[in-house]
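Q: Sequence in, structure out?
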Amino acid sequence: MTALDAPPAVRTTEAPPDSRWRFPDRALTVLWALPVPLVLGLLWDRGVEGAWTLPFGIQMQFLPTPYEVARRSADLAFGGVIGDTYSGTLWLHLYASTLRVVQGFLFAAAVAIPLGIVMGRSRLVYRMLEPTINLVRPIPVTAWAPLSLLIIGFGDRSTIFLVFLAAVFSILLNTIAGVRAVPKRLLEAAAMLGTPPAHTLYKVVLPAAVPSIVSGLRIALGLSWVILVVGETVGIRIGLGALITQAREQSRTDLIIAVMIVIGLAGFVADRLLMLLVELVAGRRPLLP
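A: Exactly. Output:
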């Protein structure tokens, strides 16, 4: 048999292993994550019923039960369960808080990423700015809160400013670290392959620094939700932090814990959306940490 008489080769296409196992992997991830909150909820319920005393003098007898918090959460989200002034108001507060977090976070990213790239690439700029940044960075955001009310005033802008302060340093330091950690051999290899110096930044340095930048963004986004409550405690009536303040004044512990859970879920969803956005931008390139 000659080569001309040989039958044509049959091309077979197989689904990538990732696509075949993606759903089972995600289902297993959910199953592995469920026991911890279930056990914590059970201990919480038993602790309230048994009036446990935890470290730091925490008296669990003064806490609401998980059922009471779930009841309050359902009323807060949909109404018709308790029927007070907070019924069905969750989405209004959540929208206002999310808008403030997004604005402060994006402003911090827009400032910190370019500045971090410049500081990571230029030793002169780094030596000029690093002492001042490390002098301002340890100042707690809560210390800025009274000053922001005096120089900015009550309202959204003061809260957005505090969120910006909470987020900017994490992004900045991680960006600097990522840029400075780019191996010199990688830059030399790019130069040997004919990459112009003007193109080295976005073709070599930025892709190599993306994992560190993404880590900084994730930390900053979490801190933004933490500081949000501080920024919304004074002079703001609509927002999750304002809702906690009102609940504290009325000693409604079930409402406080319900809003705390909402903030945790909002931060979790925001982190997942951020990672999804990074995956969409990166595509199949190995840029994620």
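The mean pLDDT is 84.
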